[in-house]
Amino acid sequence: MKRIAYFILTFALETEKIIRDQFVFPQPRPKMKEANQGACDRESRRTVLMYPAPGAGHLIPTVEFGRLLVSHGLAVIVVQRGLPAGNATAPASSLYGNGDASASPFLSFHYIPEPPLPHGVPEGDHVAKVFELTRASNPELRDFLRVTSPAALLLDFFCYSAADVAAEIGIPAYFFFLSCTASLAVLLHLPVIHGQNDVSMRDLGGELVHVPGVTPIPAHDLPAAFLDRSSLSYKHFLALSEQLCKSHGVIVNSCRSLEPRATDAVASGLCTPPGRTTPPLFCVGPLVQSAEVAEKQGEECLAWLDTQPKASVLFLCFGSMGRFSAEQIKEMAAGLEMSGQRFLWVVRSPPGGNEQPGEPELDVLLPNGFLDRTRDRGLVVTSWAPQREVLAHETVGGFVTHCGWNSVLEAVMAGVPMLGWPLYAEQRMNKVFLVEGMQLGVAMEPGPDGFVTAKEIEGKVTWLMSSDGGRELRERTLVAMREAREALSAGGDSTAALLQLVQRLVSRADAGDLLGGGIDVVESVVASIHEGRGRSSDVISSEPMDDSSAKEQLRVVGANLGSYNNGVSEVVGDSNDVKAQNTSSASIGEEGDAEGVVVNKTKASCWTRRVRIGNAPEERDANPSRVPALEASMRAYAENKGGTVVNPSLGTSFDTVEEAYEFYNLYSWEMGFGVRYAKSRLNVHRKKCMQEFVCACAVGMILGNKMRLTLSIGHL
Q1: Fewer Cβ in 10 A, N or C end of the chain?
Q2: Which residues does 580 contact at the CB level (< 8 Å), separation at least 6?
Q3: Distance of CA 296 to the CA centre of its chain
């Protein structure tokens, strides 16, 4: 500890002396100006491609996140299917929304032609259709990726097949996951659930499905695509689960305060199937639509709300695809009238089969005289309302929602409690998370035929708007709102996660480089293997490897470290090397299986087992000719003028554990997380032979979770 104290006190002076005497210190980089100031041209920015699935529910959050990346110095191209011919790139300001929702020269759209639907897609399986059309678009996407050579490709989960295209070209692929973290946990765990059952989920009825960190889910509330294990859509989701684990990271539109258990479970690898790698997790939300241009109906809504008492209005809106039968619409009207509560209701035409329904005819759909009888306390609008602005209005006190994740987040950010009425996709599962997990809503309970009665609607609406239980629910929602806004503030969890992600994208760093250990140090074992100095015993491979193949196999190990894996990674030294040189080797391996890594638990022909006996010094004698790790790192920074000043690069080694700790602690100061000592291990002679460093990440993605880096000393 004396060395640590001395190091901290003298670091500034020593750094100044080394740099003054031997280097030309690079000038500070000028601060990036805002994109809309036109200070930087596109060539000066790293370009990121985002590839959403069709539909407003996918496009809107994608563009909002793209705007956020642009504000942090990146250029973003949103790739979409849709135009039958001509791959034209156009500014997003002319294509998105109804106005200036994305007005920036650094955010644009690129359209690729809509391919023909491949053969063999079942009629009526919309989910499989989207997956297959995306796969059929891969050749067009491949051509565009080769032309643009982006720093990264951010994929909607419907576009998972494009991850293979990115890997083929050498472009890091991330997933921008538009649902909640709990849904991600279920998707990662799907292969485990699949292996636990021999029948389809629909045959389990109300039996609870258990996923680490997630509220138990009745099987019938899982997404429809999960219910038939023989369906094409189900097989796509199994393949998607595998691709998530192979990705460079998953970006989730949520925050830890909203889903702490699910966030921790995903990040710590509890949801990942055995033998697969846990992807790095970036919780950057809640991201909601930043602006909507009020059309005539929108102006009418907001003007009417201005005349209502505070927190007195119930808002009913069910998304861009939410439609009810004519009978259910009449029942909803009856329930609202019976409740006596104020309401703003967006009514859409009933489903029209294969034809797109037109504007609803309210005189036909609603009960006779309903509009006249409720004129003083209700407003019915057709098809559309500016949902974000309505929810943010102080007179709105409740929200009946289809439980689409975008709508849930908008309600949370406005502090409005919810009545859940799920309709399709993952909305029934979201309802479980909303009601049982987050406890920010209650559910409308349909009958066995799925029909919700007027009595049920009256009871739940009255409870939400005028009971003590409803007021308690509103208070919990306001707390969630404040915590979510804090996560998005400077220094908040989501902001810190975003900054980590941007750092990776800007530097095109692979997984692990930001988390003290990373791939650079993992690669030090490659040099040891190649030169015959270090041999891992729980073996990466049983065959000799050259540098390139060894690096590829160890890449996944580094990704696991970079994602706060809850396993323990041990530095392994060869006993012969220790005897000969009396040194402490520094290399990293992983305990447990990982995707793409062959783990051999028996002695292989060219590897030796760990030896947990013997006596070795706790440090090696100082070598005057060896350049200390810190000095070597600063020299490299001065020469390259990029990256971090303190960088655990290839071949980094230390004389003592204390020196390693000092080095990683300084690296952590640059990157934004903390380092501390954790568990150690003694050999049979009561000499310390292993020491863990714990990176307790204070930057917010997974507070309290840890990534362990274990160093060995002498014999293991």
Answers
A1: N
A2: none
A3: 37
Rounded (5°) CA angle 523-524-527: 100
Is this structure's pTM higher than 0.70?
A: no
Tens-digit pLDDT profile for residues 295-342: 445 788 999 999 999 999 999 999 888 899 999 999 999 999 999 999
pLDDT digits (tens, 9 = 90+) for 485-522: 999 999 899 999 999 999 999 876 333 333 333 323 33
Q: Which helix (H) or strand (E) holds 207?
A: none
Report how far residue 401's alpha carbon sits from residue 422's, in angstroms, rounded to the nearest whole number.
Answer: 7
Alpha helices in 395-453 (DSSP H): 405-414, 427-432
Q: Is residue 496 a part of any domain in this protein?
A: no
Closest CA to 312 of 395, 380, 379, 417: 395
Claim to verify: residue 324 and residue 275 sit in the same structural domain: no
CA distance 494 to 489: 8
Sheet arrangement for strand 75-81: 89-91, 107-112, 75-81, 47-51, 152-155, 173-177, 250-252, 281-283
Q: Which domain holds residue 183?
A: 45-283
- SS3 state at 570: strand
Residue 326 contacts residue 365 (beta carbons within 8 Å): yes
Contact 346, 254 (CB under 8 A): no
Give the end of a domain, one of 230, 253, 283: 283
Contact 50, 77 (CB under 8 A): yes
Q: How far is CA 379 from the centre of its chain?
A: 38
Residue 29 CB contacts under 8 Å (≥ 6 apart), including other chains: none
DSSP-derived letter for residue 573 is -
Here the CATH number for the domain that contains residue 383 is 3.40.50.2000
Is the same domain home to 349 and 421? yes
Does residue 356 share a domain with residue 233? no
User: Into how many domains does the chain fold?
Assistant: 3
pLDDT at 687: 65
